[in-house]
């Protein structure tokens, strides 16, 4: 193509994938767009040359549900319109049920089951397939009441990137009672991870306050005391990039033990082994390196490292989004058990509302840098009052053939004014 033709093709794809400002989107750098927008840009890269077949390798795993809905709809339309073949690799059966004609279920390199999508979803034969379909139903936590003074409070936080940057957070407040889990949900770019960066001192806000057990925290990480650092820990989304593959597990988990408690030698080794057993890993894993572990095991190492500091609050940033559903359930069960044992509070950042149902006591719904709705999890999930919260809940993929078409038609009617309209990506 000519330069002008190529640009027109790219802009058309940006528009088809519902990226913001498609005429100028291509001029942005990757760090200037959200994760969901970046993933859709990757889809445009795959589609731009009009291939006969596209392999979709977990393309919606990192997306919030509203963005995921739009991407799924765009992919299905593109495959049909361009008469392409698609091979979709994922751990989310609710997603593939909306896109595929056939499903193959793999485990440990072997085919467990293969068949028509309807048969796999509605009448699975293999026990492992049944486990995948029912995995989240096994988690039914008892919601904890929000009693006692908050252990962590964010008050009126306003923040932006750069001195003259657009505000990313506007007057955001969050309260986390002791021993409970506060979930922060919202679409990509809503400010969830930015709020975590503010809480941990990585991004100074322009206004607002941060309190830990009533004690005011400095905006900046380097100005916080070692004790304040110890009490607020974080578990990251991708263990492959948050733990050093060249170090042994003993060193990875042992570093906070030395930093905060001065432990060395056999005393440190013994505590590392205790932490490994606490996260259901053998004590001799202390001598291994991360490259010898599975994704779920590496995430357990990240949890053990956070627990090593004996914190009051742990911020969990999308800690299950990169894991298959069975392993994710194991991690969530582990976190719930550890909370019962240690009374640690969690701030759980996620776009997966099934995860929120499984683990959260309170929920804050964020949209364009603001908290638009908040309260007890059962209230927000069972009876949302704002249009945006309703949109989020309606966008969660259902294990039902034809769900994508049903919701697409409902939103088209809404856009025509036949039903109440909703804001957001839809």
Structural account:
The chain has 2 domains: 3-138, 3-Layer(aba) Sandwich (Rossmann fold); 152-393, P-loop containing nucleotide triphosphate hydrolases (Rossmann fold, 3-Layer(aba) Sandwich), CATH 3.40.50.300. 42% of the residues lie in helices and 19% in strands. The chain has helices at residues 3-16, 22-25, 35-47, 65-82, 93-99, 117-122, 127-133, 192-199, 226-231, 239-242, 249-261, 265-278, 295-308, 325-342, 353-359, 377-382, 387-394, 403-415; strands spanning 53-57, 85-89, 102-107, 110-116, 152-160, 167-176, 181-185, 207-212, 215-216, 232-235, 313-317, 345-349, 362-367, 370-376. Strand 1, helix 4 (65-82) and strand 2 form a beta-alpha-beta unit. Helix 12 (265-278) packs across helix 13 (295-308) and helix 13 (295-308) packs parallel to helix 14. The two termini are 32 Å apart.
Helices, strands, pairings?
Blueprint: H1 3-16, H2 22-25, H3 35-47, E1 53-57, H4 65-82, E2 85-89, H5 93-99, E3 102-107, E4 110-116, H6 117-122, H7 127-133, E5 152-160, E6 167-176, E7 181-185, H8 192-199, E8 207-212, E9 215-216, H9 226-231, E10 232-235, H10 239-242, H11 249-261, H12 265-278, H13 295-308, E11 313-317, H14 325-342, E12 345-349, H15 353-359, E13 362-367, E14 370-376, H16 377-382, H17 387-394, H18 403-415
Parallel strand pairs: 1-2, 7-12, 7-13, 10-11, 11-12
Antiparallel strand pairs: 3-4, 5-6, 5-8, 8-9, 13-14
